[in-house]
Amino acid sequence: MLRLIFQIIVIGLCAVLYGFAFNTFLIPHKLTSGGVTGVSFFIHHFLHINTGSVIFILNIPLFVLGLVYLGRKFVLLTIYAVTVMSLSMKFIPIHAISPDILLSSIIGGAIYGVAVGILIRIGGSTGGTDIISLTLAKKKNWQVGILNTCMNLLVVGISGLIFGWNITLYTIIAIYVAGRAVDMVYTTQNKLTLTIVTEKYTELSEALIKLHSRGITMTDAEGVYTHKPKKVLTTVITKFELNETKHTIREIDPRAFVNITQTLEVMGRFRKD
Fold first, then answer.
1. How far apart are CA 175 and CA 187, in angstroms?
2. In terms of Cα–Cα distance, which of 61, 44, 60 is closest to 52?
3. How much is the pLDDT for 92?
4. Can you give the residue ranges of every domain in the chain?
5. Quick check: helix, strand or coil at residue 264?
6. Which of 41, 53, 116, 166 is the most buried (most CB within 10 A)?
């Protein structure tokens, strides 16, 4: 319960930060983003409908995609994030903090990129192309930030035709900075090796297999000081799964010793989805 409360608080703050970045750095200079947010900005520009409201409506079919591939909890947290983000973009005044468009594109891109990265790392997202990127990253082992950047190119091209290529070049800067910020905060393609020393090896191994549907190697061990029999569980996961894995371990055996190391490459059968 405490973990869920923590997730709700952090996701809410990040969603507000996302809205703040757009309404004070990007939108005042007609700098957009890609994906759903970019399309919503176009609709706002021509029809004067609030950007946040359009974002929520366009995200509805993508929630279904997330429900199928990323899980119910992820979708519920994403709906919460998109709702808070939409409300923040509705109530935060659209007013430029800086008249410098280059500075605004860099700072705005960095802020919303960090917000997106933390949202994904904590278990949610801002919806839109994040859902598509996470689905592809989970199934194909690609970087979330780079996927977002590639999918944004189409919207950026449309932005160039509408607002001129000068502004679009600044938009590309914002998108690139945001993509790098996402990958700095949250990188899903990296593999992690977990070495877990535990006395509750039966319960923990069953829980981890249920969580990931991956194999676990179990070896005998003995505590040097206590001389109690233990087991060492070794498995490989992705960073996408680290948050839930640590939570599962803490719930079953808070006293377990866990060593988490970066894995350069995995050969053989490794379940990606």
1. 17
2. 44
3. 93
4. 2-185, 191-263
5. coil
6. 116
What are the tens digits of pLDDT across the range 13-32? 999 999 999 999 998 988 87
User: Which residue do the tokens 């939570």 mark?
Assistant: 247
Annotate 80-106 with b (16+ C-beta within 10 A) or e (fewer).
bbbbbbbbbbeebeeebeeeebeebbb
Q: How many CB atoms lie within 10 A of CB 25?
A: 25
For the chain, what is the largest distance between any 2 Cα atoms, rounded to a whole number of angstroms?
Answer: 73
Q: Under a CB-based contact definition with an 8 Å cutoff, are residues 57 and 205 in contact?
A: no
Q: What number of residues does the chain have? A: 273
Side chain identity at residue 148, one-letter code: N
Contact 156, 38 (CB under 8 A): yes
Residue (of 242, 241, 252, 251) closest to 202 by Cα position: 252
For the chain, which residues score pLDDT lower than 70? 130, 137-149, 186-190, 240, 268-273
- Which amino acid, residue 64? V
Residue pLDDT, tens place only, 119-176: 877 877 777 776 777 777 666 666 665 666 677 777 777 777 777 788 888 988 988 8
Per the CB < 8 A criterion, the answer to whether 223 and 230 are in contact is yes
CB 55 within 8 A of CB 40: yes
Q: How far apart are CA 40 and CA 46, in angstroms?
A: 10
Q: How far is 80 from 18, CA to CA, in rounded Å?
A: 14
Find all residues with CB under 8 Å of 72, minimum gap 6, and list them.
none
Q: Counting Cβ atoms within 10 Å, is residue 62 exposed (0-12), middle (13-18) or buried (19+)?
A: buried
pLDDT at residue 141, as a whole number: 60
The domain 191-263: what is its CATH number? Answer: 3.30.70.120
Residue 3 tokens, joined = 């973990």
Q: How many CB atoms lie within 10 A of CB 181?
A: 21
